[in-house]
Backbone:
């Protein structure tokens, strides 16, 4: 079981490395700046806008999602749903952390003078990722590891297989895909919120906006 989680971790580390090397990917996953709401005496200091000469507060509220009420056919289905909620809450923050790390690394890479300096920085990043995430990956179940790969695909809009293929070539991509398949994982799995991952998308949306 732990070996399979290491395979998933290895794939995720290469995913971050490949994303860092592809400039076009960063345009798809840019973070939106957060609004600053600062507590002050008897109120809050918020962003404002001027409309027809008047200065008024301007706050973007979180999305509110309205889904049909869950109806479970049996206890097993209900248990699966709440297990999915638990797994999303555990892996979604990791997926977002990796996304931010990729963006920060790419932005820093753009300031480096040549390819040799970029390669040295990539090696440091890879070492740092292993040190930071290996202890946390050890605590994931195999199902959570596979979900994490899908959630990273959700955040970055490309499968691990395609990214490894673009960076390392089709032979290595095929090798790692075969190796992962031995443990029931797949680097070709894509996030599909309209079909296979419809329930996952529902849970992710509700978790992200604080409704679950």
Residues:
């Amino acid at each position: 079981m732990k070996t399979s989680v290491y395979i998933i971790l290895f794939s995720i580390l290469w995913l971050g490395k490949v994303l860092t090397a592809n400039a076009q990917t960063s345009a798809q996953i840019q973070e939106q700046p957060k609004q600053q709401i600062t507590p002050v005496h008897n109120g809050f200091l918020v962003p404002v806008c001027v409309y027809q000469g008047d200065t008024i507060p301007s706050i973007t509220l979180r999305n509110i999602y309205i889904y049909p009420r869950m109806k479970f056919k049996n206890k097993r289905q209900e248990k699966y749903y709440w297990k999915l909620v638990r797994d999303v809450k555990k892996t979604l923050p990791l997926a977002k952390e990796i996304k931010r790390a990729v963006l920060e690394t790419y932005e820093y890479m753009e300031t480096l003078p040549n390819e040799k300096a970029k390669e040295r920085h990539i090696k440091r990043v890879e070492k740092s990722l292993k040190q930071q995430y290996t202890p946390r990956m050890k605590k994931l179940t195999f199902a959570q590891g596979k979900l994490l790969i899908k959630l990273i695909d959700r955040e970055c809009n490309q499968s691990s297989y395609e990214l490894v293929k673009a960076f390392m070539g089709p032979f290595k991509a095929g090798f790692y895909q075969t190796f992962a398949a031995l443990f029931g994982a797949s680097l070709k799995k894509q996030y599909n919120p309209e079909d296979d991952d419809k329930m996952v998308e529902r849970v992710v949306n509700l978790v992200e906006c604080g409704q679950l």
Q: What stands out?
A: Helices lie at 2-21, 23-26, 75-109, 115-137, 142-156, 160-168, 170-181, 198-208.
